[in-house]
Amino acid sequence: MSKYTEEQLEEELKTQEYKYGFYTDIESDTFPVGLNEDVVRAISKKKNEPEWMTEWRLEAFRVWEQMEEPEWANVHYEKPKFQDIAYYSAPKQKPKLNSLDEVDPDLLETFKKLGISIDEQKKLANVAVDIVMDSVSVATTFKKTLGEKGIIFMPISEAIQEHPELVKKYLGTVVPTKDNFYAALNSAVFSDGSFCYIPKGVKCPMELSTYFRINEGGTGQFERTLVVADKGSYVSYLEGCTAPMRDENQLHAAVVELIALDDAEIKYSTVQNWYPGNKEGKGGVYNFVTKRGLCENNAKISWTQVETGSAVTWKYPSCILKGNNSVGEFYSIAVTNNFQQADTGTKMIHLGKNTKSTIISKGISAGKSQNSYRGLVQINSRAENARNFSQCDSLLMGNECGAHTFPYIETKNKSAQIEHEATTSKIGEDQLFYCNQRGIDTEKAIALIVNGFSKEVLNKLPMEFAVEAQKLLEISLEGSVG
Amino acid sequence: MLKIENLEAEIDGKAILKGLNIEVNAGEVHAIMGPNGAGKSTLANVIAGKEEYEVTGGNIELNGEDLNELAPEERAHNGVFLSFQYPVEIPGVSVTNFIKTAINETRKAKGLEDMPAKDMLKMIREKSELLEIDRKFLGRSLNEGFSGGEKKRNEIFQMAMLEPKLAILDETDSGLDIDALRIVANGVNKLKSKDNAVIVITHYQRLLDYIVPDFVHVLHDGKIVKTGDASLALELEAKGYDWIKQELV
Ligand SMILES: Nc1ncnc2c1ncn2[C@@H]1O[C@H](COP(=O)(O)OP(=O)(O)O)[C@@H](O)[C@H]1O
Ligand SMILES: [Mg+2]
Q1: In this predicted model, what pLDDT tens digit does every residue of B149-188 receive, in sequence order?
Q2: Which of A38, A136, A132 is nearest to A92 (CA)?
């Protein structure tokens, strides 16, 4: 830090609030369990989809049927029974609302707890929120403000109706339906998610934010997110999840595709705190996500993620650096406690000349958890002067957890410059005593040290997310010392 | 305020404090001097409650309360402050964030709300001025890459912010150049009052030119072997410790 201004000092002193974790009882309309072509057709019909979309889903389903669940990740879990899952769940009061008075009061209460009010306050906070309750977006805000700039931000199901040409052009271009088992499943059954399009040269004036939640026991959630930044545009997108305590495993298999055309920039930030299961390792969400971005010439994509939740995580937000001078970044904090397992990392595929990628991964393991970083840096033969810097730091708490690093590097061009650094550390007794001596108990001291360890990544998050993320780290590690 | 009787403590089965007595009243400054390895830091750590040290005998009371019953953070909440001989680094945690957390955790323990940001800001301004601390310094990671002198000054800054009842300064003077020494000593003097007490652990007379002790104790082989007034420090400076060791035989 070069300067430390009065304002920065003041900012740091402000006390921040945090709200999380609750469960809302809203009647919902759920399909019977099981998956076959009829279910896929029914989902498509429920959404009033055009024929091409139905066909796209069916093709994905047929591919999925032939595929095997992957086994290569460093995680062990009881495989989901795909025929025991209900593939569609929508709040019954699917509203076409004119005013807030028409919204289910329970839902309004939920919004309140989430700290999202669909009103002026939020506008002042400069955040437009597209809320996904279970699988159907219930409210979309600031469509108008965004509309004036030509920005499209809406549930993907609406985008399929209103902007079929855009969806058709880009959907599945970065993550093809055949890409992997979960991506194929998602393609067949996704029921909602968000679509975002930033027109040429437009700098999106606010952070676009989506809160995903799983709200109905036993329903898997399959969001599909597609963000397209046209030439010279910019957007910062926030994705956050809170999930209520549930006792059975829930499957979450999202697909996120980002497309940054020439000179465009996309910043995609995630805070993930799905239910991690209890202290004995029972329950918790399976989070099998495919996230990938494509950069054209001079484009930039940054993934920032704070992963604290889920029982099992399998997630590798990646960048295909296709265009010359394009830039990919991955900043990650992954916390595992109790019996959580995370296998996460990134792939940076350098295709264009002078492409650059940065990977900063911070893994924190506590309890009996297992935390793996898995990364691939691939430099293609045409990628002259490609550069990568990777740093993978692990922080261990106690002796029963594990931290693993699997960095893969494939270089087909001699001009590549690749740097990889890795450290593993433990929280020291002397650090804890120092904090204790200043009146900070051990639990709080750990939170402080962990926040410090993660700071490089926390700093990459937009302000309102950074605060929530910090509190989350604290909560996730509660009870991790005896 | 602090009453230590026949204190015995060991680490890894090795006896370090062997029947130590000291009494410190509010408003007093005590200096503890003694050769390397005498047990000075051990005493400081035992008062602060470091768990590696096992108290095998005697009592430590702070304002009538048995300190041995309390966790280190509870001792801190009761007003014990230790300026460490070797302060640790906490990467990524700024001096501001650290002190904010320390103050608010202490307030929480007392059932108080967090200190309002503007009050804290005012206090940080005051105390950093008192210790001539640059604003930039407050944004840096705690002790990471600090020079020896910066570390010590930061310890005293924290002491100024926390306003302890009993402050123990363990070789705070080592690593300080003469200007910094004057600033730090001046700061400590300004914080002194009739309600608090300071124990200064040092090797050298020079700090005591600035922070004038009411009592000087010599710690040798785990015991206080001699107590005097400020002139004892001068005598030690001139003659070293050997004459005391000889007096003992
Ligand atoms: N962690 C430790 N393990 C073993 N011996 C220790 C430890 N800390 C201190 N000692 C020993 O205790 C004695 C007193 O040390 P210390 O209290 O640091 O002395 P001083 O501060 O007076 O120089 C020394 O002999 C030292 O080697
Ligand atoms: Mg010492």
Answers
A1: 899 999 999 999 999 999 999 999 988 889 999 999 999 9
A2: A136
**CA B164 – CA B75 distance, rounded (Å):** 10
- Bridge partner list, A267: A236, A302
Among B7, B10, B16, B82, say which to mutate for ligand 1: greatest number of ligand atoms within 8 Å of CB: B16
d(CA A244, CA A197): 31
CB atoms < 10 A from the CB of A138, how many? Answer: 23
CA of B218 to the centre of ligand 2 (A): 14
pLDDT of residue B146 exceeding 90, the answer is yes
Q: Is the minimum distance from the CB of B37 to ligand 1 under 6 angstroms?
A: yes
Nearest partner of A159 among A247, A66, A59, A228, judged by Cα: A228
- Enter the pTM of the model: 0.82
φ, ψ dihedrals at A268, nearest 5°: -120, 115
Helical H runs in A341-482? Answer: 429-437, 442-453, 455-458, 463-476
A333 near A345, Cβ under 8 Å?
Answer: no
Ligand 1 center to B47 CA (angstroms): 15
How many CA atoms does the CB half-sphere of B141 hold within 13 Å? 16
> Is this complex's ipTM strictly greater than 0.95?
yes
HSE toward the beta carbon, residue A82, CA cutoff 13 A: 17
- For B183-217, the three-class secondary structure string (H helix, E strand, C coil) is HHHHHHHHHCCCCCEEEEECCCCHHHHHCCCCEEE
